[in-house]
Amino acid sequence: MSGALRAKNAAAMCAYVLGRGASTLARGARGARRLPSAAGTTASRVSPLAGGTAITALGGLFYGWSNARKWKQGKITGEAAVRHTANESVGIGLATGVGLAVANLVAATVWITSAVALAPFLVGAAATTAAKTAWDRAVREDPSR
After folding, report:
1. Which of 63, 96, 106, 142 is most buried, with most CB under 10 Å away?
2. How far apart are CA 120 and CA 105, in angstroms?
3. What is the mean pLDDT of residues 91-108?
4. Which pTM was predicted?
5. What residue ranges do the domains of the chain occupy?
6. In whole angstroms, what is the distance from residue 68 CA to residue 61 CA?
7. pLDDT tens digit string along 32-60?
8. What is the per-residue pLDDT for 138?
9. Long-range contacts of 76-85 (CB under 8 A, 24+ apart)
10. Is residue 46 classed as helix, strand or coil in its secondary structure?
11. How far apart are CA 14 and CA 8, in angstroms?
12. Is-contact 22 84, C-beta < 8 A?
């Protein structure tokens, strides 16, 4: 494989993992938009930025609703409700973005095209769980936990 072809393949792989459209790449890398799967069909990728942003918004909505209820009942202060809502929604959004990027990377690798199509999902879910756990440990308020 020539150096130019390797560079185009590397650029296509990076764009695929990051969820960027192939239109931003050179003409030879446009195949990164959809990759073949084991079943012979094509598999779409999900942008980690778009997925993480959507989950952050949904997380903020659900955590905000839950914390507003606790605040109205007098179980937590308003400041604690806002802090907890922001912490959890940003954490789950970042974890989702990491999980999607890892899943896209696994799906884009050559060895996975001949394997089970469920593998990118499982690896992405494991990466999401690991990222959320790391986030929770990094931002915990009580150092004894």
Report:
1. 96
2. 8
3. 90
4. 0.66
5. 1-33, 39-139
6. 10
7. 444 444 444 455 677 889 999 999 999 99
8. 92
9. 85/60
10. coil
11. 10
12. no
